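About this split. The held-out portion is used to measure sequence recovery: a designer receives only the structure tokens and must propose an amino acid at every position. Recovery is the fraction of positions where the proposal matches the reference. Here is one held-out target exactly as it appears in the evaluation file.
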């Protein structure tokens, strides 16, 4: 066992904040990188969007192909900011599949938080069967209102 001498104690006290600062700096740089990558991936135009609603029984899928409605929902994603995943006070969950050019499909899980739009999260996901693998998380405070408005309009149109 290593004896903790006063010199070693001072060294530990000095190195702890430096280590913490390096870790925080690395996370900041990684977050900026992920934000830039995610925003760049939103530049590709979407041809179709599917919103999966969980409810009683089988999930209901709502397709959206109107270019105006696609823009209304997808424009807020260009403002998304990388964040560390947390445990939101989940109010509603939506699974969204964005069909883009060249058969690329982006999948997201959107968690609307009961505390308000500032706490809403978007997780990049990959689903295999009934298993969902979560990737990076992004804050999307501007997504709640357009998403709910488009869903209300599409559901009213279907009735």
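Reference sequence for scoring:
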């Amino acid at each position: 066992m290593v004896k903790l001498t006063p010199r070693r104690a001072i060294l530990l006290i000095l190195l702890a904040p430096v280590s913490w600062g390096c870790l925080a700096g690395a996370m900041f740089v990684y977050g900026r990188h992920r934000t830039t990558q995610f925003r760049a991936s939103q530049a590709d135009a979407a041809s179709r969007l599917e919103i999966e609603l969980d409810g009683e029984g089988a999930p209901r899928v709502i397709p959206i192909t109107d270019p105006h409605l696609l823009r209304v929902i997808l424009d807020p994603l260009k403002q998304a900011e990388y964040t560390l995943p947390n445990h939101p006070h989940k109010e509603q969950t939506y699974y969204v599949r964005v069909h883009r050019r060249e058969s690329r499909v982006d999948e997201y899980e959107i968690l609307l938080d009961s505390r308000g739009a500032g706490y809403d999260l978007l997780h990049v996901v990959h689903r295999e069967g009934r298993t969902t693998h979560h990737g990076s998380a992004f804050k999307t405070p501007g997504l709640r209102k357009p998403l709910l408005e488009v869903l209300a309009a599409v559901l009213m149109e279907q009735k």
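Annotator remark: DSSP finds three helices and seven strands in the chain.
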